[in-house]
Structures are given as C-alpha cells and as structure tokens.
C-alpha cells in the first residue's frame, strides 16, 4: 500500500531477505504469431511497441488478433493452503473507458484492421489517472471535439474494415441482391455485436442495429452493402457499450447481499483486459456462454491460459510501462552531443522492455520471479542498443538475446527504457530515478512539506558531476525527502542520460554508492547492480508488487475492507517463492476480483 | 528563423527544426472557407446563432467575449511587475514593454492570493496548475490538484445563452513529450466539472474545421466539396444517423449510473449532442462584417520551433470564434504545468541548448529553475516574448472593437519559476468587459485573491460569482 512515511518511520520498516534465484538464461520466450520481436515499431505513447499482426478470419465470431500459447512451466500454489478472504468487502469499481492501448488492441482483435492511425488516436482525449491508482483509464469526453475525435477514429476504422468484409461477414461471396444482403447483415449483427460490446445483445439492441443498417441503405444516405455495414460498425465503435468497461449492459446486476457479483461476461472482460489489454477471445466468450466463469477454480484456470498466451505480452508491456511511467520514450529528444540517440534507438529500448518482461513471465525458462525482473542479466537488443550496452556481435535490427556484464546491469531498472526516460536531455536525473523507484517499487510515497519553497539547483559548473550538483538538496529544507531519494537515485549514476554505462564523469570517478534504511537494516551498495538484489529481496518490494498489480487490475486504490483478499494474494505470492504469475492467479481467485460494491446511486434493476 | 514577439510571421512554410526530423504529419489548414460554406449550403442559415449571441439581455455589462489564457513558470517579478497605481504614470518594466501601447486597457494583478496554498510563500507551483481557475477546496497536497466543480470559463459560458460551442478550448503543443506528468491536473486547467477536464484542440487546422467548417472534410489537402454536393448531404445524413444511435445508447447507459459516473456520461452525451448540432447546422456559419477566419499555412504540429506560429494561429481563431458568434468564451493553454516540451530557441537571445534540465533544449521549466545561463537571464527575455504575444492579442481584440465589450484574462499559476511559489499569483486582465472593470491600473499586493477576481469576472458577464467574495477595487 502506498503510504506517506517520515524519515524516522522508514527506519522501522523490517527487512525480510530470501535467497537470490539467479537469472533467466536467454529469456526463453518464443514469439507467438501475433508479434515478432524486432520487426515492428512502437505506437505512440509507448504503447504496443511490437505492433500488431492481425490475421485469420472467422465471420462474426473468431478473434482475428494473433494468438498462440507460449510453452511455459508454472508451479501452481495450492489454493487450499491459502487463507480465506470471505471477509473481504471490495471497493466500488470505477467506471472507466478503454485506454488508448486497450482501444488499439480491441480494434485490432475485433476487426483485424491493424492500428488506428496515430493522428486519429492522438486526437482522442488522453488517458487519465484512474481513481488515484497510478494507472490510467480512458480520457474524458466533455466537449464536442472529444466526440468528434471518436467519430473520426471510428469512421477511419470502419473504412479500413471495408477491405475485410469478406472475412467479417457470414456470407461468402458477398451477396449482390438486396434481400440476401439484408439477410446477411441481420445474421452478422448479433454475433459481431456480442464481440464489440463483449456480451450478448438484447433483441432490442439487435433491432436497433438492423434499423441503423437499413437507414444506411436508403437514398438519404445511399450506402451500398459493405458501406452500410461499415457505417453500423462505426456507430458501434462510438457506443458507450464499446467504449466503457460495462459488460453488464442492460442486464440486471447480480446482487448478493450488499455486493454485486460480476456476471460471466464481465469476468471474461476483466480477465482479458488484465492479462491482454484487449477484448476476450472465443474461448473466454465460450466459457461465459457456458457459465464456466462462475467459480474461483474456473476463473483461475482461464487466468493461467491467458498468462501463457502470446497476447499476454500486450498486457505485461502495458502494466510495466504504466507502472514505471515509461511511455513516450520514442518521442524524447536528447542533447545533440549524444550522437547515438535516435528515434530508432528509443524504439529498440521499448522493444527490449516488451521482450524482457515477457521473458520473465513466459517461456520454457521463465520463472516469473520478482527477483528475476529486478536482477536478471539476460535481455534483448538489436545492433544499436547492443552498442549502447557495450555488447559485441549483435547485428541487424532484430532483437537478439544478450547477456549483460554482471557488474554493469541487473534487471529492468538498469535497462535503457527506465534510464533514458528518467533522465534529462543531456544528463542523468538521479532524483527522478530515485523517486520513481521509491514510489513504485517500494511504495514509499514522500510527502512534500506544505510550506516548502523549492530552491533552484545551482547552475552546472564545469568539472562538476551530477551528484555534486544535486547534492545541494541534502541540505535543508530539502533534506527530509532527499535523504531518501538521493541514495537510490545516485545508485544509477553509473548510467548516463541514455543509459550508457560510465565510470567517470567530468574526469572524476562516478560515485554511485549509498546507504539506505529499509526493513530495520541499513542497506549499502556501491551502485545499482549491488542495490537491486537487496531491494528485490525486501518485503517492501514484494508487498508493493502486489499493491501495484492490484491497482492496475482494479484501476483504483485498495481499500481497508479488502485486506483479507490482499493477505490471501500476498500469501500465494510468498508460497510461490515470489512468482508474480501466482500473484496474478491468486488475485483472480480473490473475492475482490469477482465482486464489487454498487456505485452510489447506481440502478441495479 | 528567430521570432521577436508580435512581429512573428504566420506565413512561413519552413520547418524550423534543428533537431531530428519530426514524424508528425504536416497539416495544411488553408481551408477555403467560402467554398466549404457554399458546399455545405450554408449562408444565412447560421444567422440565428449569431443573433442569439448578440441579442442576449445581459445582467452583467459584458456583451462581448471572454478569453482565458494560462501560461506557466511565472515571471521574473523585478522585470515584470509594474508599480502599484495608475499605469499611465509609469513606464512598464522590461518584460512588459510590448504592452506599453495598450497599458491603459490593462489591470495588473501581480500578487494575488491563492487560498489553496495557505500562505503567500508556499511552493508547489506545478501542482497548482489544474485548479488555478477553480481555487476551491484542495484534494490533496502532493498530486496535481483538480477542481471539484466548473472552472471560471465554464461558469461564465454556461450562464450565457448557448451558442454552437460552449467554449472554444485551444492549446499550443500541450501534449508533446516530455510532459510534466500523466495526471490530468498537470495538463488540463479548464474543467466542465469534477473529474471532467476539457481537452483542448492543439491543431489550428482542427480548430478551423471545428469552428468554421462545421463538418469534417476528410484528409487535409483534399479538394473542397462543391456547392450543393449531394454527397455532402448524404454524409451529413449518415453522421446524423450514427450519432442518433450513439445518443440513444448513451441515454440508456447513463440511466443505470449514479453519482459522478452519471455526471461523466451525461457530459459525454452532451458532447455527442453538441457535435450533432454542429454537424447539422454546418457549424456556426460565420456571417457579418469582420468575421473572416484567417487562412493558415503549412504547420508542423510536432516541430517545437513552430510554437509561435501555432500560437498566433490559435489566438486569431479564438478572436474570430467570438467575433463570428461561435462562442462567447475561448480558452488557450500555452503549456502544461512545467513547459518541459517548449523550446524557446525561437526567441531572439535564447540559445537552443539549455542546462539539460528535463530536456536538452532551453525549455520553460529550465528557464524557470535556471533563469540565468551562460551569464544571461533568459527568463526575462522569455517573459517579454510572452508579453509580446499578449500584446498582440490585446491589440487584435482592440482593433476588432472587442476589447470594450469583452476581456482577456492572461493567467499564470505560480509567481516565478525560480521559486515555484503558488501562493502569489500574477495575472493580467485586458479590456473593461463592457465598462465593468476599471483598467489602466496595477493593484497592490495582498489585496485580492484569484477567487475574488474570478467572481468579479463572473459578475461582469452576469454569471453567479461562484468563486467567493467580490472585493471593491477592480470594478469601475
């Protein structure tokens, strides 16, 4: 749980240590059919760097997005050995729109038309923080330009879908006679509507779609058969039932006491958007149709399936990008003197992040361990990125497995994306690096004193290191926060503004050493490579990881009345020897996953 | 090419980047308005909207428009703040010299209290951005604050008879990276209500389409549609049917919701309805003397050195939007809460490279924290450039005869970028709003808060003074 702490309070936090489990080898994950590492560029906002590769065709029903299982070994925690969380009273679920990433992925999987053009996507209102969770929901729609952007994006997508009508529609070849066309459309809308709104449509809703289709065929609009269908699709993509996470639809909520239980289709979407950042696939829809998402074992079984699907790369990337606020690196500029910095290098870093986090969770050698995420010396790089890392014999634009020098790098926080996003144009930014680590890895949120004037840093002086310049903050009035931020931030001083390893700055040896009170102990290190294993073994990081995934999944802060569920998930995490996959599966088994409190004023029917 | 204030050219077609090639598409917003209007069959059809705006019975004195601007990083006070008292009797300080010719139309408010920040020397200047035009109860000290109700622009606009656009929300390169934060309160300062940030349009081409074309015309650069083109009619019919369907869905959807969720979806629904009206009316067909939207040139939205050209285009469109009866209230955001993404190298005397703070170039945040670099105070130069932009807007309003009936609020959300003090806010008002305000003066420190001023503006427009007490001194 994020909590404000005082300096003295932090000293009292207990450190619990466990053994280090080593690295992940060559990453082990086999790229599935959906994404091919090294061949695709990133979307805007750092989303979906692998690009998308929609394929397949199956009228009205199947999922055209890439999918496939990545052979992965997991050691399930026995749920019988976990504490009960029956006492949990979950919080209110925030109403949220699809984020831009979710919108992109859902369009891809719904229609198989690839990505929404960047300019159109950029016009859609930007994602916002969701209920103080630190993770996003879709942007607000508060004025006509917002509605206009959604209309234009939907029209673009529908136009692109025209080329796939032969695959989307359940009639082949496309009929030429109007009655047959109408019959084809009538057959299409219920199946497509179920996938677009992620739950079965009522008869009234289907009739509305049929009426809209027929309106397109009148002389007033004058659309031919494919265009009329595309127009209806454009309308559906603007519907709140597509744009908002509200798979309840017009159905009555399932009331159990004072709580609402998510129905089968809501559970299907909660699973797919948590693990894949996109809509459910056919198997999830089928499970919902058959009432096979009604108990914890059934849900957990699906969770394991989703975790090993190649689409999980999308969800994993989305979580880690949001968690450490690493979006937009490909739009960053650096000082022109840093000649290695190019948009292509930034993209390579984003692709590395995607592949690396996937390799921790998926593949024959993947162990899912938090410690692996934070300390591994294995990763991926193309030729340009490998040069930044000082690794020879990597050629070409495709990502290749690499092994870092053990004395230089350890895990996600020492890789390019984190280091380059937490940096100024020309220099490292130890405050940003340290503050992000404290808040997001250890859940230590610092309170800035209300009466504090922020004094400017002194001008940089020739011959002065970044540490020397920033160290002015170690004096009052900044010291109360900076004595916590600076040690962990300075640990990364062996990396410059783009993450290159360095041992000197301004002709002086880099000092990345630090001491830090955590868990009742005083940790010390000479640099981040020594720091990260210590943090990885800390109870603070382990608990914080549960909190962060919880908030990502729920898009809200955790509440005290669901402590029993949090306790159950933490115990599962512990019993798995800190396997994050078991953390996630345990979360889907929790009462907090399947239930919610009604929103104030909500009509449950 | 350097720009030195109000003389900035708006006709350049040069992509003035000394950085990497930008990947943003060029947008040609040289839209032939007359052709479009003809193509839409619009002539006098838009008149009722304009008349409605002009004929409104005012409870306040202001019959004209209100433009609210927010910029960041405060000012170098010693080079910016005039002496207390009449402006006619003094020469304005260095940064305000571009305003000398219009100073009798101004009210300087260099030291407004900000009740959110508890005291005059309280820092947290970045966090004040999101709620600066609200000024109400805080929602937390650390994060970027968000208002819990309508901001000034909405309070005024929603009290007036509705035109096609409640407000015209614009921005300049607001969402280029690196942004201050993903939090809405760091980049959105105009709010329709709690949790409902207004998303401004950053592309003048899109503003032009939205305001003056009324209907989307497809890909920029494609030929304009011909007069009485039946395809346009069909397009409008199609969009109407689509939006009708969406509106019906939203109606049913929101009926299930309660509280803030319902309010948010109601706003969504209203947005769709407004869009539908705009499309059906062909926008607010500009009519009347002086209503002449400016044609633009090729502008690259992602090129930081195009900032002055984009800004000028947006200012022109804001003024024309009011003049043409599209809206009574326009808003313009000149940066997010930090300005990390603005490269002031286009200002004469400011170098391309800065101290490296937040980005390699001499960005707003950098000149704020580190005003003096290489022996030169760049912040005062940037301040003067900003004042030159304000002077341009004031002069344009004045020339159009809009300054007497309306006004501009040129806002900031911290005192000085070097101290980030959020408890002393420097604002400037321009125009008398129909004789409501007594212009040509600089108000003393400590006498007013942002809330006092906002309530006074509300009264000038006949709106409820929702932000707090009104104090004597500003009113004529």
Brief overview, please?
Helix content of chain A is 43%, strand content 6%.
Average pLDDT number of chain A: 87
Uncertain ranges of chain B: 1-58, 214-227
Task: Report helical residue fraction of chain B.
Answer: 25-40%
User: What gyration radius of chain A follows from the Cα positions, in whole Å?
Assistant: 25 Å
Span from first to last CA of chain B? 44 Å
Keywords:
heterodimer; A: 605 residues; mainly alpha; three-stranded antiparallel sheet; two-stranded parallel sheet; B: 476 residues; alpha/beta; eight-stranded mixed sheet; two-stranded antiparallel sheet
Could you please describe the fold and organization of this structure?
Chain A has 605 residues and is mainly alpha-helical. Chain A contains 25 helices and 13 strands. In chain A, strands 4-5-13 form a 3-stranded antiparallel β-sheet. The longest helix of chain A is centred in the first third of the chain and has 20 residues. Chain A is globular and about 80 Å long. The relative contact order of chain A is 0.16. Chain B has 476 residues and is an alpha/beta fold. Chain B contains 11 helices and 14 strands. In chain B, a hairpin with a 2-residue loop joins β10 and β11. The radius of gyration of chain B is 22 Å and the shape is globular. The N terminus of chain B is likely disordered. Chains A and B meet through α3, β2, α4, α7 and α8 of A and β7, α6, α7 and β10 of B.
């Amino acid at each position: 749980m994020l909590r404000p702490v005082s300096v003295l309070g932090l000293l009292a936090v207990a450190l619990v240590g466990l053994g280090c489990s080593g690295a992940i080898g060559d990453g082990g994950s086999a790229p599935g059919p959906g994404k091919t590492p090294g061949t695709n560029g990133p979307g805007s906002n750092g989303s979906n760097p692998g690009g998308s590769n929609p394929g397949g065709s199956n009228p009205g029903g199947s999922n055209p997005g890439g999918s496939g299982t990545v052979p992965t070994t997991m050691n399930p925690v026995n749920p019988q050995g976990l504490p009960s969380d029956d006492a949990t009273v979950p919080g209110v679920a925030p109403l949220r729109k699809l984020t831009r990433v979710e919108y992109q992925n859902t369009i891809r999987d719904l229609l198989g038309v690839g990505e929404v053009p960047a300019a159109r996507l950029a016009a859609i209102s930007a994602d916002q923080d969701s209920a103080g969770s630190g993770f996003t929901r879709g942007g607000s729609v508060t004025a006509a330009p917002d509605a206009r952007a959604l209309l234009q994006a939907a029209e673009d997508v529908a136009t692109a879908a025209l080329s796939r009508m032969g695959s989307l529609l359940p009639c082949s070849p496309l009929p030429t006679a109007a009655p047959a066309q109408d019959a084809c459309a009538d057959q299409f809308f219920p199946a497509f509507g179920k996938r677009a709104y992620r739950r079965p449509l009522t008869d009234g809703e289907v009739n509305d779609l049929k009426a809209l289709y027929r309106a397109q065929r009148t002389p007033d609009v004058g659309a031919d058969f494919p265009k009329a269908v595309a127009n209806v699709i454009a309308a559906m993509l603007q519907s709140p039932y597509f744009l908002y996470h509200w798979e309840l639809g017009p159905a009555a909520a399932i009331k159990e006491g004072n709580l609402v239980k998510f129905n089968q289709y809501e559970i299907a979407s909660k699973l797919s958007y948590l693990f894949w950042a996109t809509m459910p696939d056919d198997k999830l829809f089928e499970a919902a149709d058959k009432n096979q998402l009604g108990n914890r074992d059934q849900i957990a079984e699906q969770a394991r399936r989703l975790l090993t699907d190649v689409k999980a790369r999308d969800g994993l990337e989305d979580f880690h990008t949001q968690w450490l606020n690493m979006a937009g690196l490909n739009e960053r500029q650096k000082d022109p003197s840093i000649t290695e910095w190019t948009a292509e290098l930034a993209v390579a870093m984003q692709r590395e992040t995607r592949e690396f986090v996937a390799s921790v969770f998926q593949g024959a050698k993947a162990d899912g361990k938090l410690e692996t995420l934070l300390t591994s010396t294995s990763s991926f790089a193309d030729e340009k990125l490998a040069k930044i890392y000082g690794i020879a014999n990597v050629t070409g634009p495709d990502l290749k497995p690499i092994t870092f020098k053990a004395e230089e790098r350890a895990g996600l926080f020492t890789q390019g994306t984190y280091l380059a996003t937490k940096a100024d144009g020309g220099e490292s930014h130890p405050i940003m690096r340290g503050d992000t680590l404290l808040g997001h890895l250890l859940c230590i949120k610092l309170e800035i004193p209300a009466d504090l004037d922020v004094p400017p840093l002194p001008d940089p002086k020739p011959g002065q290191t970044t540490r020397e310049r920033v160290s002015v903050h170690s004096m009052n009035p900044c010291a109360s926060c900076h004595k916590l931020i600076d040690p962990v931030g300075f640990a990364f001083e062996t990396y410059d503004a783009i993450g290159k390893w360095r041992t000197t700055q301004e002709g002086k040896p880099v000092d990345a050493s630090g001491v830090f009170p955590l868990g009742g102990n005083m940790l010390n290190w000479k640099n981040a490579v020594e720091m990260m294993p210590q943090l990885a073994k800390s109870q603070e990081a382990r608990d914080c990881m549960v909190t962060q995934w919880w908030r990502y999944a729920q898009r809200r802060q955790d509440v005290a009345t669901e402590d029993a569920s949090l306790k159950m998930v933490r115990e599962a995490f512990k019993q798995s020897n800190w396997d994050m996959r078991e953390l996630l599966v345990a979360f889907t088994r929790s009462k907090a996953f399947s239930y919610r409190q009604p929103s104030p004023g909500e009509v449950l029917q | 090419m350097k720009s030195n204030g109000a003389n900035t050219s708006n006709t350049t077609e040069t992509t003035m980047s000394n950085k990497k090639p930008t990947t943003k598409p060029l947008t040609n917003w040289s839209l032939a308005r007359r052709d479009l209007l003809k193509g839409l069959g619009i002539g006098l059809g838009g008149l009722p909207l304009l008349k409605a705006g002009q004929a409104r019975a005012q409870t306040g004195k202001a019959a004209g428009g209100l433009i609210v601007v927010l910029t960041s990083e405060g000012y170098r006070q010693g080079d910016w703040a005039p002496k207390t008292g009449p402006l006619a009797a003094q020469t304005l300080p260095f940064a305000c010299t571009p305003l000398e010719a219009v100073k009798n139309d101004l009210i300087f408010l260099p030291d407004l209290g900000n009740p959110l920040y508890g005291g005059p020397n309280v820092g947290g200047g970045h966090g004040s951005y999101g709620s600066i035009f609200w000024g109400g109860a805080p929602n937390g000290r650390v994060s970027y604050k968000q208002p819990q109700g309508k901001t000034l622009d909405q309070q005024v606009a929603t009290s007036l008879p509705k035109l096609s656009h409640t407000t015209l929300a614009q921005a300049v390169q607001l969402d280029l990276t690196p942004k201050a934060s993903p939090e809405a309160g760091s980049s959105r300062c105009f709010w329709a209500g709690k949790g409902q940030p207004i998303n401004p349009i950053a592309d003048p081409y899109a503003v032009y389409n939205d305001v003056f074309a009324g209907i989307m015309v497809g890909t920029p650069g494609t030929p304009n549609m011909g007069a009485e083109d039946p395809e346009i009619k069909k397009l409008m019919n199609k969009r109407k049917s689509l939006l009708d369907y969406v509106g019906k869905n939203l109606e049913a959807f929101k009926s299930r919701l309660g509280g803030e969720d319902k309010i948010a979806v109601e706003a969504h629904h209203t947005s769709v309805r407004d869009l539908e009206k705009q499309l059906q009316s062909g926008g607010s067909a500009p009519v009347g003397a002086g209503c002449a939207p400016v044609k633009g040139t090729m502008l690259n939205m992602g090129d930081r050195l195009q900032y002055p050209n984009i800004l000028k285009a947006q200012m022109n469109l804001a003024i024309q939007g009011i003049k043409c009866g599209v809206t009574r209230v326009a808003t313009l955001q000149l940066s997010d809460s930090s300005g990390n993404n603005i490269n002031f190298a286009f200002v004469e005397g400011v170098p391309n490279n800065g101290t490296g703070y937040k980005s390699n170039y001499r960005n707003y945040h950098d000149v704020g924290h580190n005003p003096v670099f290489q022996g030169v105070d760049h912040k005062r130069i940037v301040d003067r450039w900003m004042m030159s932009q304000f002077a341009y807007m004031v002069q344009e309003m004045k020339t159009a005869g809009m300054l007497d009936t309306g006004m501009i609020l040129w806002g900031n959300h911290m005192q000085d970028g070097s101290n980030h003090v959020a408890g002393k806010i420097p604002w400037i008002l321009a125009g008398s709003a129909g004789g409501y305000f007594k212009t040509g003066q600089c108000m003393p420190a400590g006498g007013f808060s942002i809330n006092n001023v906002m309530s006074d503006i509300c009264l000038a427009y006949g709106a409820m003074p929702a932000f707090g007490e009104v104090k004597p001194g500003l009113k004529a």
